[in-house]
Amino acid sequence: MSGALSPDRRRVLTVGAAALGAAASAQLWLPATARAAERKPLPDGVFSLGVASGDPLSDGIVLWTRLAPDPLNGGGMPDRTVPVEWQLAEDSRFRRIVRRGTAWARPAYGHSVHVDVRGLRPDKRYWYRFRADGQLSRVGRTRTAPPARSAGGHLRVALASCQNWQHGYFTPYADMLQQDPDVVVFVGDYIYESSPSATGVRRHEGSGEPYSLAQYRNRYAQYRLDPDLAAMHAGAPFVVTFDDHEIDNDFAGEIPQDPGKQPHDAFVDRLTAGYRAYYEHMPVRASAVPDGPHIRMHRRLEFGRLVRLNVLDTRQYRSDQATSQEGAQDPSLTMLGAAQKRWLVDGLRHSPARWNLIASQIMMAETDLQVGEGKLWFYDAWDGYQAERNALLQEFRRVSNPVVLTGDRHLTMISDLKEDFADPSSAVVGAEFVGTSISSNGDQDQAAFREQWDPRRADNPHWKLLDAHRGYHLFDIRRGGIDARVRVVDTVVKSQATPRTLARLRVEAGRPGVHVV
């Protein structure tokens, strides 16, 4: 790639975050002021945060980067808009470039770049890179979704969640990269908002929890510096959604965990800052550009007619958590909000796909914590919103092969989904894979875990597998079934780890539930 724009390349494709709410690209001539600004040298290391891709379509993909030569101190970029060239090729040496253009890295969005590339071939691997002021990014690799009408084939999906910087290194990603997934589904807790801890394996930046946009940007930048996470982002497209720790533990809508300490207006400001920083650091489309304290993250992705992936937002529209068993069964409580629930149900009822996956940040199957008679639930999970959960499980009876992919729990908890958890004899209507954490909870004491959780298994007969190692889940999806592997590592307190397959499971098409192989 030459250092200056040729006359033929003055006309470039501008995409992504070029304007607030911009959802489509536009053809623009570079103005003289932009050309002059481009000649001013930028600090070295503008691509410190790497590259990423996400939300694959059969003909498109989102490419991401953020210019940040001083990532932990606000980014270190000059207060001006910077042109960033991008290329997408059919080969890793960029001899067959199929798309190229220029995007604008703007100060208002932390000099992040979101390029929504269209017109690509389905089910095709591509390579991409960025250049700004003569500096080249690392090369990323991505893949488009299968053709819209393709009914067969094979899709490999990795499920990840819950990566706490202070609890350990993100070593499971090194193994995930070797497994070469077609797409990574990340279901929440990409960052943690906790204050720096002197006892952590690694220490959070800053001096406390993030509240402002600048503080959230620094926290995301720190996480992006993890080498295994950066390599995985460069190796496959991600489909992301957030849970609570991207903002505040156990928040619900505009209600913080501790309303007495965070007044409503202050928390709205925090939401506004957190959602803006989230968008700036994720490979998502312009439909996710935040509107103050609101962001649209629930969306649907199609992988031919093999898989429909429904990505939920179980934080932004929910009622405040119940505080009692009676409250958990209140039919007025909602996890999804009315509009998102209609969207989900309609998408399930009219799906043409063989497999209907739901990315739900919060565990859907029951967790009865009370050993013996009686019930005791986590109210932040779907157990705290039982009327809506039960209505959704009723819908599953009419859905082709529903499978829920979940995070949050920092455990592997794989379950049958029952039509009515209050009735142990009720029908199995689906399967749920609660993926363990990437690093949250660190290297857990396995004996202590078994002592705490094994006595509860008799009260939760729908649980098929329970484990407390760190890692992720890997799914090979074909028309006839899903072969799942629980991949774990021996440690996250060191920067190198040994991976292994802890368990293999199978979901058969047309037979709801999951079976240990």
Summarize the structure.
With 517 residues, this protein is an alpha+beta fold. It is built from 9 helices and 24 strands. The chain is 17% helix and 26% strand.
What layout of secondary structure does this protein have?
Layout (H helix, E strand, L loop, with lengths): L10 E4 L11 E4 L2 H8 L11 E4 L6 E6 L15 E8 L7 E9 L6 E6 L7 E8 L2 E2 L3 E4 L11 E6 L11 H8 L3 E4 L26 H12 L2 H9 L2 E3 L23 H18 L17 E5 L3 E5 L13 H4 L9 H12 L5 E6 L25 H11 L5 E5 L5 E7 L9 E7 L11 H8 L9 E5 L3 E8 L2 E9 L9 E10 L6 E2 L1
Descriptors for this entry?
517 residues; alpha+beta; 7-stranded mixed β-sheet; 24 strands; 17% helix; disordered N terminus; PhoD-like_sf; Alkaline phosphatase D family protein; Phospholipid_Metab_Enz; Metallo-depent_PP-like
Number of helices: 9
Strand percentage lies at: 25-35%
Overall pLDDT metric: 93
Q: Per the principal axes of the C-alpha atoms, what is the gross shape?
A: globular
Largest sheet: 7 strands, mixed
Task: State the strand order across the main sheet.
Answer: 13-12-11-21-22-23-24
What's the multimeric state? Answer: single chain
Helicity, in percent?
10-25%
What is the CA-based Rg, rounded? 23 Å
Roughly how many Å apart are the termini?
51 Å
Low-confidence stretches: 1-30
β-strand number: 24
Structural class by secondary-structure content = alpha+beta
Textual characterization of the structure:
The protein is an alpha+beta fold and 517 residues long. The chain contains 9 helices and 24 strands. The protein has helices at 32-39, 172-179, 213-224, 227-235, 264-281, 325-328, 338-349, 386-396, 446-453, and strands at residues 11-14, 26-29, 51-54, 61-66, 82-89, 97-105, 112-117, 125-132, 135-136, 140-143, 155-160, 183-186, 238-240, 299-303, 307-311, 355-360, 402-406, 412-418, 428-434, 463-467, 471-478, 481-489, 499-508, 515-516. The strands form 5 sheets. A 7-stranded mixed beta sheet has the order 13-12-11-21-22-23-24, covered by helices on one side. Strands 14-15-16-17-19-18-20 form a 7-stranded mixed beta sheet, covered by helices on one side. Strands 5, 6, 8, 9 and 10 form a 5-stranded antiparallel beta sheet that branches. Helix 2 (172-179) runs parallel beside helix 4 and helix 3 (213-224) packs parallel to helix 5 (264-281). The longest helix has 18 residues, at 264-281. The N and C termini lie far apart (51 Å). Mean pLDDT is 93; it is low at 1-30. This is Alkaline phosphatase D family protein. Pfam families: PhoD, PhoD_N. It comes from Streptomyces chlorus.
